[in-house]
Amino acid sequence: MTTLSSLHYSPYDYAMHEDPYPTYSRLRAEAPVFYNAELDFFAFSRHADVLAAFRDVDHYSNAFGVSLDPAAYGPDAHKAMSFLAMDPPRHTRMRSIAGKSFTPRRVAEMEDRIRVLARSYLEPALEAGSFDYVADFAGRLPMDVISELVGVPPSDRAEIRRLADLLVHRAEGVNDVPPEGMEAALLLAGYYADMVTDRRTHERDDLTWSLLQAEIDGDRLTDDEVISFLFLLVVAGNETTTKLLGNAWYWAWRNPDQLQKPLADPSRVPDWVEETLRYDTSTQMILRVTRAPVTVQGVDIEADRRVLLLIGSANRDEDAFSDPDSYELDRDTQGLISFGGGRHFCMGAALARMEARIALTELAARVSSYEIDPAGISRVHSINVRGFAALPTTVTLR
Question: Is the pLDDT of residue 2 over 50?
Fold first, then answer.
């Protein structure tokens, strides 16, 4: 077990939210299996170890959730995080039934609607010339996409987005979900419970109604299981895609030679998305609990111990990517693990990639250059998710 006095890692530290990558580099080199005695967790920082843990459901469990927060950690984590907090066979059943409704075809059919939504926010923002990229665009589009998918009416979306933001925010020095976040969770759960009750008696062309109808060999999801899946979508599907869009916008601005590639050729936008997913991924870490003793990098870890898989570090591993600390759209990104791996590979990966591709393509078609005001930049403070709360932008149109 390696504990170095000069090397400290905690996902709650605000300094880590600002820039975790120097610490990640030291962890990979000096303590690839790091132990935080204060919070009692191990952390894997190397690509090979993180990927192996993702794929090994015999030794690593999801059943206690994906967060260190005491309020979110424990055997009841599935009530909020659905199959993300389950192991086989419960995970297999839940994901299989939900997958009958959340299909690639349903996602593909949303492409035209996503483009319409993106343009509805972009056009007034671009016409104004200066706007907050997050508040006016990146923070609104993903919530609208998820809301359209599950059936949340436009009049309710701003409030749902506000509650979702409260869920992920962590005040400095507070190592748990704050009271505002707990209240937001209860309000969201109540809102989705009302939606499910409505769909039991009123057919709608949305995912909520489809989830209630989906079955495999007569097995259907309960109301509580549908509610937990909707809760997962609003948190994981909305927050992570918002941060992906913001991170892409910021890092392209910081690397103007790379920005010129998609601006000159919009067919390069998918490369912009993938390199952002690797370079500064929205989901920085995720929790597992050991189901049996394991030995990693020479360190023996007992059963029932908490392990953080540092996705953000793995994507910057020198053994997986050449020159990993450079933002380079021409690189091979096939090894990125931003959406996990194995049985828990993110079900929403295709939707997130499509949203980002459409949004950034619409921008690349209209904008010849842009500037971000450094004085107005602010970050979200969350232990799992990394991204921006504000990116004040001024654009030059084509």
Answer: no
